[in-house]
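Input (DNA-binding response regulator):
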Amino acid sequence: MCAHVLVAEDDLKQAELVRRYLQREGHTVQVVHDGRAAIDEARRRPPDLIVLDVMMPRVDGLDVCRVLRAESDVAVLMLTARSTEDDLLLGLDLGADDYMTKPYSPRELMARVRTLLRRARRARDSGRETYVAGPLTVDPLRHTVTMAGAEVSCTPAEFQILRTLAAEPDRVFTREQLLEAVNGFDRYITARTVDVHVMNLRRKIEPDPRRPAHLLTVYGVGYKLAGHGA
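Output:
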């Protein structure tokens, strides 16, 4: 599956390495070396995927992700030398779909790219059915979510979680099952990722995220979407 990929990396050697690997897989690649250029290029020619370094001049990768996520549901794979859990959660909280720490294997990076592109394709090509769970509606064809008629802006990962839950209201899904729906099997990403996405979704769809009425926790098991009009 060939795609248009934007690489934002200020390390020239690293950027060239990533470019070569992506081009070997048949992708069209555009490379920029600072955050301001990443935003401008993504707006000029929207990519299918952004490989985004965190530590960049002018505008850092976290701010780039924040800006572009407000405008687009493009898949974002963040790269960073930081490796703490707080950094991982911050990147996901801002809307990144996946996160890799440096140094990394280029082959693993390509595997992550393939996973994200497959997921984006599934989201576009998935069934035409609209899913309804109480006041929540998920439309895979239009890639939209509405809560009580009001549109809800979701990242690609959040959309896949809601789509999976809304397809079977009141069914309890484990974190591992939701992770599979989001990323496919990937031993490098933990179930904690799902918790972060659920926390973000509750901010968007719940009247009181601290007392969720729609996206419910089933303690010791996982999550479910209430099928009734709560």
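Residues 126-225 form a domain with the Arc Repressor Mutant, subunit A fold (CATH 1.10.10.10).
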